[in-house]
Amino acid sequence: MVDYLIFLAISTALFALFGLGLNLQWGFTGLINFGHIAFMTLGAYTTVLLSLKGVPLLISAVAGAIVAALLGLIIGFATLRLREDYLGIVTIGTGELIRLVVNNQDLPVGDTWVSGAFGVQSYSIPLSTEPNLFVRLLMIGLLTLLAAVTFFTLWQWIRTTQISRTTDLGKRTTSKQEFVSRLAVGIVLAVLATAIYISGVIGLYNYNPKAGLMLVLLLVLALVYWRLEILVRSPWGRILKAIREDEEIPKALGKNVFWYKLQSLILGGAIAGIAGAFFAWQLSAIYPDNFQPQITFDTWIMVILGGSGNNVGTILGAVIFFAYDALTREVLPRIVHLDEARLGAFRIMVIGLILMILMIWRPQGILGKKEELTLGK
C-alpha cells in the first residue's frame, strides 16, 4: 500500500509540474499548445543520454530543460506572429515529429549506438543507493518541513478568501462561494498531503529509491509553484493576462506582445523539460511510445478541470485525474464486466462525460474565475 501511494504521489506531482508549464502558456497567456509532450520528450531524452555519458544528474536535468526551452524559442519565432490556430497546428505536429524521429534514429547510448525503437534502459536515477541513517533522517526532516509549508500555504490560501468575504461587503455572495469551494479543496488536499507524508516517512526510513525520487520531485514542484505564483502576480504576469484577454490593449500601451508570448512559451517548455526528466526517472526505461499525444490531452483535462489560469487549480486537476484513474482501475472491473480494452475505452468515455458536465455547470473549472476569462463574458 505504501509503495502504491508513493507511485501515485510521483505520478500526480509529475503531471502537476507538467501541467504548470501548460497552464502558464494557455491559462495565463492564451497560447494554444497541443504538442506539450514535445518539450517533455526532449527533456527526458536529453537528461537520460547525458547521464549515460557520465554527466551529473542535476546538470543533465538542467540541460534537458534548456533544450526544451530552445524548442519553445524555435516554435515561437516560427508561429507567434501568425494566428493562434497556427500555433496549435505546429505544436501538435512538432510533438509527433520528435517522437517519430526518436523512434527511427540511432541514439548514442553509452559507447554504442542503439536504435531509438529499442528504448533506453539502465540509466541512473536520483538517490538510487540506500543512504545511511543520518541522511535518511535528514530526508524525513525535509519532507516534514515541506508538509508543514504545504499546510501553512493551504491555510493562508483559504484565509485570504475569508478576509475578502468579511471586508468587502459589495462582493459578499461571490466571495462566500469562493471561500466554501476553497475550504473543500483545502481539506481534500490536506488529507492527501497527510497520506503522502506518512507514506513518504515510511518509504524513506525503510529506504525505497522511489520515496527518494518522490521527495526530490515534491521539492521541485514546490519551488516551481512558488516562483510561478510570484511571477503571475507581478506586472509581468498581469501583462500575460492582458494578452490572453485582448492583445491589442497591451500593444496600445507599448508592450512587446510577441516577446512576452515568447517568454511564456520558453518558460513553459523549460518546466515541461524538467517534468520530462522526472518522467524518465520514474519509468527507469523510456521508449518513444511513452510520449504519445494522449499525454498532452490528459494534461489539458487536468488544467481545464482545476481551472485554467490558476496554479492551485492545475495541481487539483492532477490530483482529481489520478484519483479517478486509481479508483476506476480498482472499482470499475467489479461493476462493469468488460474486457480490458473496452474497459479502458469506457473509463475515457466517463471522464469525457464528467468534463462535459463541468463545462456546462462551471466552464471556468473548479477554481477558475469566470470574470477573468473571455469564456465567461
Folded structure, characterized:
There is one protein chain. The strands form two sheets. A two-stranded antiparallel sheet has the order 1-2. The chain folds into two domains: 1-130 and 207-361, Orthogonal Bundle (ABC transporter involved in vitamin B12 uptake, BtuC), CATH 1.10.3470; 131-163 and 174-206. The protein starts with a helix and ends in a 16-residue tail after the last helix. Helix 7 runs antiparallel to helix 10. With 377 residues, the protein is mainly α. It has helices at residues 2-28, 37-52, 57-79, 84-104, 133-167, 172-205, 209-232, 235-246, 248-252, 257-283, 293-306, 311-335, 340-361, and strands spanning 106-109, 112-115, 120-121, 285-286. A hairpin with a 2-residue loop joins strand 1 and strand 2. Residues 165-174 have low confidence and may be disordered. The chain is built from 13 helices and four strands. It is 76% helix and 3% strand. It is globular, with a radius of gyration of 21 Å.
List the uncertain runs: 165-174
Helix fraction, binned, reads over 70%
CATH class of the largest domain: Mainly Alpha
Q: What CATH architecture of the largest domain do you see?
A: Orthogonal Bundle
Number of helices: 13
Q: How much is the average pLDDT?
A: 87
| Coarse morphology | globular
CATH topology tier name of the largest domain: ABC transporter involved in vitamin B12 uptake, BtuC
Strand content: under 5%
Query: Mind describing the biggest β-sheet?
Result: 2 strands, antiparallel
- What does the radius of gyration come to? 21 Å
For the secondary structure, the number of strands is 4
Domains, number: 2
**What is the ordering of alpha helices and beta strands?**
HHHHEEEHHHHHHEHHH
- End-to-end Cα distance, whole Å, is 46 Å
> Largest beta sheet: what is the strand line-up?
1-2
Structural class computed from helices and strand pairing: mainly alpha
Subcellular location: Cell membrane
Transmembrane segments: 6-24, 31-52, 58-79, 86-102, 133-158, 179-205, 211-228, 265-287, 299-324, 344-361
Membrane topology: Multi-pass membrane protein
Keywords: Cell membrane, Membrane, Transmembrane, Transmembrane helix
